[in-house]
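Our example pasted here:


***
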Amino acid sequence: MPIVAVSSPDDTRLLGYHVVSDPELAEREGLFVAEGRLVVRRLLSTPSLVTRSLLLTPPAHEALADVLNGRQDVTVFLASPDVMNKVAGFNIHRGCLALAERPAPRAWQDVASGARRLVVLEQVADADNIGSAFRCAAAFGASGVLLGRSCADPLYRKAIRTSMAATLAVPFAHAQPWPDVLTALEANGWHVIGLTPHADEPPLWEAAAGAHRAPTALVFGHEGDGLSAAALRACTHRARIPMAPGVDSLNVGVAVGVALYEISRHPYGEAQS
């Protein structure tokens, strides 16, 4: 494993890390940034992802020694916390950054093919909520995530960190054209449930009861406005998560977790009494 000690934030060997504070530039250059020891450990343990280099403090390097042992393909830059913070432009907790190559985009049909459960998001623009949705998808066995219009990038470092690296493991694709993808799922036999807080819609467990008969996609909307009218029209079913009086909605990440748990109680392919 090549190890390079750097003592200045102006060291030209660190030029690749100029994308840390500019996610749009990172995306244009085909890169993403991973932050934190657990996340970077999971990145290094994912053979399908290419890690270009790491920027570590000595304690972080020691903590990752077991997964770095024998890795001749990854350059490790060792720096003090002060140098690292100046390179990144903000304080890096736990002294650990990785620079990796973005994987080739998937087609939504490839993510849906053979799947049993999908999470579909529309206009979820907050990176933390994207990360939470992916973490729930991983926890409850969803096969993938489809991203409708105006969603935050799952490979933005905040989304990766919030997901505890689930965005590196759960397959995802952009669902274009939107919302035609929902209609296409229905045409291919999918049970497509649009989640809404509207009180006149049936509770989720009623819509979920048919999930054992067909693969099921759960569709969630914008943090403030919910699903668009066009997306709701394209769903085969609408459902709500019942809540206590006076509570009008849930955080979208929480809603994903609750809905996936309910769906998990109706295993696909099992007969229901």
In short: DSSP finds twelve helices and eleven strands in the chain. The mean pLDDT is 94. Residues 127-139 form the longest helix (13 residues).
